[in-house]
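Dear Dr. H.,

I hope your travels went smoothly. While you were away I took the liberty of generating a structure for the chain from your last submission, since the lab meeting agenda had it listed for discussion. I wanted you to have the full record in hand beforehand rather than looking at slides cold. The sequence, exactly as received, is reproduced here:
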Amino acid sequence: MVEKSKTTAVHSSETVRKIRFFSRNIHDKANKAKAEGRPVAYCMGGCAYHEILEAMGVTSVYTEHYGGVCAAYRVSEPYLIRAESEGYANNLCGYCRNTIGFDIVRQELGHMPEDAPDGGIPAPDMLLSCSAGCDHRYKWYQATGRYWDIPTFSFDVMQIPPFDTDIKAIKPYVMKYQVEQFQRLIDFLEKLLGKKMDWDRLAYLVKRGNESLWTWYSAYLLRKHHPSPMPSEDHFSAIVPAVFDLASRETLAFYRELYGELQFKVDHNKGVLDQEKYRLLWAGGLPPWHTMAIINYFETFGAVFVMEASDYGPWPFFDVPKGMTNPLEILALRTWCQRVEYWEDAKKGCGHSRVQRILNRIEEYDIDGCMMHLTRSCRYQSLGQIHFNNLIQKYVNIPLMFMESDIVDVRDYNEADTKRRVDAFMETVDSFKRKGGRQATARR
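The corresponding predicted structure, in token form, is as follows:
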């Protein structure tokens, strides 16, 4: 059994240090809602439905978030093993195995596991998934439904359009389809809960969510500064409010406070380190939640991860067009903006949106080296990483390291081997920088 201890990174931002309390409060609210008889839903990140659920009085429990929390406290292993004993493969998404195993163990015990972080998560009244991102999402909650006799609902979320399409021509159709998908969810909730949507409240929550996202995005632009005021280990905590509690007033207050702190640091040239020697990009993959402290190891070389090109980051969402008052249309527009953020650049450049995001950020954030986390149980984030590196090198000659581990399963992590890779990588980064740094190898 792995030692049950918390192994999170050391944060440099005072605002981000409050995230543990923020995260705990999310689960406290869910447990309180359950105790008071209010509906609770298992949810997935990226489904763009938080404001819809909040407006309908449904409290969200994001099972991916709780999987990360369990991993951070290193209590996931018995849940993973229990899920695997049911026939779920050990390379299936760690979040998925953690939740399924957790639910099985809880039912077998007849009570919450004693070591469950944040006092555990409440039993759900419904399972709400979507197609965004991961290929296992439809089946995950179908599998979870074997252990809960409750309604399950899944809907579609738009993906990145193919490059052989005219996005201006297809945008109205894609937007209309996304609105229809959101309406399907509302119809399901209205029937299940026996109440109607409060459209005025939904419009208010969407507006506040947009403000939170814009403030988050504005704060992250400050990270271009030399020295950088915020590192990636802080980012992977700072995502919690926007991804798992977007509709709340606390989320907007958090990002306003973060913006203020980063602006102060920029104004006073205060960086993550006293001497920032190398600027790194987290170029792909979710982090190893069980061993976030490994990011601090890079800092012993004077290296700071100043930005990320992985998912769960802010994106520019501009003002809502005049005349657009339907909150579902605004949610669809927000989703569209996220999916096509690098579409035009990629079509003119390397032909791949994810790689184009990396190439753009290498230049915008003055990057000296890149790292990709090859996560064993996350195909969505890991598939294609070697191809991505090969494509990157066609446009810019820059050191890139692969770190191999998992998002939840610490059994796939070897700290000694990882540190040896970091040592060799930082030697290469230093050598490149001494010789003039990254070099463009092709016109984009």
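Two observations you may find useful: Residues 1-6 have pLDDT under 50 and may be disordered. The chain has one domain: 16-440.

With kind regards,
E. W.
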